[in-house]
User: Fold FA complementation group I from Suricata suricatta.
Amino acid sequence: MDQKIVSLAAEKTADRLQEFLQAMKDDDLANLLENQAVKGKAPGPLLRAIFKGSPCAEEAGALRRLKIYMRSIHLVESGDLQKEVASEILGLLMLEAHSFPGSLLVELANEFVSAIKQSRLKNGKSLELLPIILTALATKKENVAYGKGELSGEECKKQLINTLCSGRWDRRCVIQLTSVFKDVPLTAEEVEFVTEKVLRMFSELNLQEIPPLVYQLLVFSSKGNRKKALEGIITFFSELDKQLSEDQSGDELLDLVTVPAGELRHVEGTVILHIVFAIKLDCELGRELLKHLKAGQQGDLSNNICPFSIALLLSVTRVQRFEEQVFDLLKASIVKSFKDLQLLQGSKFLQNLVPQRSCISTMILEVVKNSVHSWDHVTQGLVELGFILMDSYGPKKILDGKTIETSSCLSKKPIQHACKLGADILLETFKIHEMIRQEILEQVFNRVVTRASSPISHFLDLLSNIIMYAPLVLQSCSAKVTETFDYLSFLPLHTVQGLLKAVQPLLKVSMSVRDSLILVLRKAMFASQLDARKSAVAGFVLLLKNFKVLGSLSSSQCSQSIGASQVHVDVHSRYSSVANETFCLEIMDSLRRCLGQQADVRLMLYEGFYDVLRRNSQLANSIMQTLLLQLKQYYEPKPDVLPPLKLEACVLAQGDRICLQEPLDYLLCCAQHCLAWCKRKAVPLQQEEEEEEEEGVYQELEDLLESLTTRMIKSELEDFELDKSADFSQSTGVGIKNNICASLVMGVCEVLIEYNFSISNFSKNKLEEVLSLFMCYKKLSDILNEKAGKGKTKTASKTNDSFLSMKFVSDLLTALFRDSAQSHEESLSVLRSSNDFMRYAVGVALQKAQQLKETGHVSGPDGQHPERLFQSLCDITRVLLWRYTSIPTSVEDSGKKEKGKSISLLCLEGLEKIFSAVQQFFEPRIPHFLRALGAPAEEGEEVDGSVTHRAAFQVRQFQRSLLNLLSGPEEDFNGREALLLVTVLSGLSKLLEPSSPQFVQMLSWTSKICKENSQEDASFCKGLMNLLFSLHVLYKSPVTLLRDLSQDIHGLLGDIDQDVEMEKTNHFAMVTLRTAAPTVCLLVLSQAEKVLEEVDWLITKLKGQVSQEMLPEEASSQTSLPNPPVEKAIIMQLGTLLTAFHELVQTALPSGSCVDILLKDLCKMYTILTALVRYYLQVCQSSGGIPKNMEKLVKLSGSHLTPLCYSFISYIQNKKSRSLKSTGEKEKGKAAAVATAMARALRETRPIPNLIFAIEQYEKFLIHLSKKSKGAASEHEGQDKEPAAKRRKK
Assistant:
């Protein structure tokens, strides 16, 4: 029969075919087609013949066509057909779709819709027909019956899509359905409808089905609505990440139920690849992605930026046209995130309003962690981002070429956090990805070499961390390391020291690297540049410290900083320790040659020897002999010759230039410390002859030091030719030489003071010798100070650096102030009786504290060793604290009136510097530091829990001291001491937990002091007020404080209208006529500026939220304001601040900075008021008007601020014209004076036009707002009337 139908179809006319088909039942025809298709015979000719014989013009033909069409669709869906057969049928059905009339197309489409809703589709292959059917329907011009009415083809298509998208979709056909829509011509509204439906389906699919669906959605998004698609994808994965992290941190049983993390990461990686591929094909998609994430920057970062979106952005950097934009966006987001965090941490007002969100740095490090799941496309972006952050935000060069690094979190700026984040990204990426390690190392080494002139400490720290993590990995990059060594001679000394310290673990596992370093250092030893020779010494000293000779002490101080990972492969096993010894002695030979070089090179060597000895005690003999031989060159061996030193030999004259040849003081200092250490640690491990030899060296050195002490005491200054009559001017050769010699003699005296005290065992004779040495030191010091006082310049800074070691300073101070042993009393009274010596001892401690505060370490042995340094610091602080609190300055001063600072005041200065240094460089150890000071803490109390408790104890001690100072007679008030106490209290206040009762107690105490005490000392007043503000902002907003202070300033300085009689308020006694302006006024203005900054930040945040939440079509349906509590807080802040400005603009402020800054702050105030008005312009349509408190604020600005601003401007201009007039009259002959006065007046009036413009802008937007909100908001603005009550008139 099928043959018959096919042969009839081959005839020219279709009449016979139509008759034949009409004679058959439709079901028989359908069965015939089905049998043929299922048997695998090609059904194409039969199907074509049936369609040819069923013309749509006849109703019967159309119905038959429909029946066969539907049966064919079911056949394709059944899955019973071979692939080729099914494809052939589909192809024919596609061709025939357009010939159907509209009504049948609707029926076909409805059949598809119901099949999808009822999940009747088995394989979804037939869905390929749906876009063709819908497209055919949309092209029909005539109206088609749909439901109960008639619609155009386009309308029908719209209704069908609507029905389809609002119904249930079978999970199996979601991907195919999404693919279907890309071939249908859709309007923007339909595109949005479909996109939303697909995004809603995400949560119903298995994870593995998401990537293909995302791919189809992205292809579909080329029709429009890209933003919605991207937003939906990012939000979906962001939520999944959140759920996963909550599950992992919560109940472990949940892990079995939820998605495995690894699977999720792989899916995310695939999705990111799809998106990047789509962006390469459709640049508009990339632009939308950036636009969407930039919009998130305005509002709440965490809404848009999440680990998934960061990973996506980093992958997009592979698309060249977006690379720069993406990195700029990421940089800006990172810095903004850290700035926001800083702003939040510094303000209780903001903390109460804005919830703490996760920081972007946490998210980026999470991306690094996730990238282990084959995210190769993200890794490259991560490395680039890490280097961009380190390059952009690393330490900058400051004027004198130094950079100050701080390790404290409190003092870190956002850009320092960004730099640290860059280093963390690179280190973590290095740990996870082996492929990228070589590249990271190469880039770090390149920067170390090429950026020698700028600070690179952050790169050296990164290098050090990388090498500590995996020194063996670097063996594969040893070529790069040795290449870097070739540049050592050309790099600055501090870079060389940092680099060698960083690569030190590598030297232990790679002999080739070590050998190449030694070659480079030997060459550098004879280089023409001084820095290269110093680098060589630094390198050799480092090698000596780290290659121990067998038998060296393995005490804690000799521990080698190298992890266990390298111990297993320590290559030293091949080389015996004898080889190590030979190696070290070879280096010692090289170093001895330095002793003939410049003073700077020798000095480096002397500073390094002590550390070498501590780490490599077997070299003691060699080192001690070297030092002794060197010393003998400058020592007079005959016991009766005075002076005992050949100072002439230490100074070198090259023509007119005089310079130091031998730093004898450093040499002696090094010898003395090495000797003391050897005597302390002497261990009989050596051979007997060697031991005897060493003992001989020690004895000889002891005798030399003993003889030196005796003869230095006997020597007069005339013996050194350094008495008062000597020339110490810096302009003559003799003067320079005398300065150098004086500096050496003073250094030698200090070294001998330490030596003799250390070996004295509290013998009276020895301590008398110590005092005699000090007298020699003091005489010289006095002469130099006197001469320096007469001359313009100070003496060389060498005299400022004390040679006493930190440990000795702590021992000496403890002995002088805290040693109460009966047996020591008589001998110590020798030193205690000399006030100068006591002051000197505290002065040296002060100098060490200053050095520590500036650089993080001190000069002298162990000055670079954090552990020992910290221990000495604790001991010194304990003594200084006891001395200051037990003998107050007032008691000491009344006893003896001497010139110079009292010992108590010096102790306080030392304490201030030490507290500052500890917070800066020893932050993690603050609990131990406070415990060492001896604050009472309950037994068994946790270290961390007691920081506030212990700090509060110290705070109370200093509070008592300040109260005593303030309650004493006014003429005894010491402003310097008071300011130091306030500085110490400020430092300690940072250790108090802001939520603790101790913090609140300190705030109320400070406030009470400011309210009840009146002092004329401006710097003390500034310090105390700063402390009050810094505490207040962590408790609540300081606006009421600002208002009260402004009233006090107004009351004291008077009104701009001289006829108004002021009633003085007295909120704060600390505000006096002398301190009101500029001191307190400037503080109030700077604090007001911070409040305005916070308000501005909140308004920006609100605007961002509004623009994200309110899409244009949603605006009308929105009924409530987005964030009433925040808005209320903003209005309250501005209202109170406005009353403070109301006082200040009526105050007769003196010309200068107060007026200038007040005008700028007023301008900022109006700019922020304008921003608030513009925000209400955005939301007032939806909220049906502006809130009542906003109206009140507008009224207040109109009555209490704007008119007064204009009066204040007139006051300034009148004052300017009067001052110019008087200057002109006084200085008629002096044009310069007139010009200066003109310039000053111009500078003061420059902000006025900006202020007027800001006020006018504010009024302009108010008018807009009043029109929109149909309120009378602008009635109250610009009336320029007198304020209600001109001021509290008597």
In short: The first strand starts at residue 144 and ends at 146.
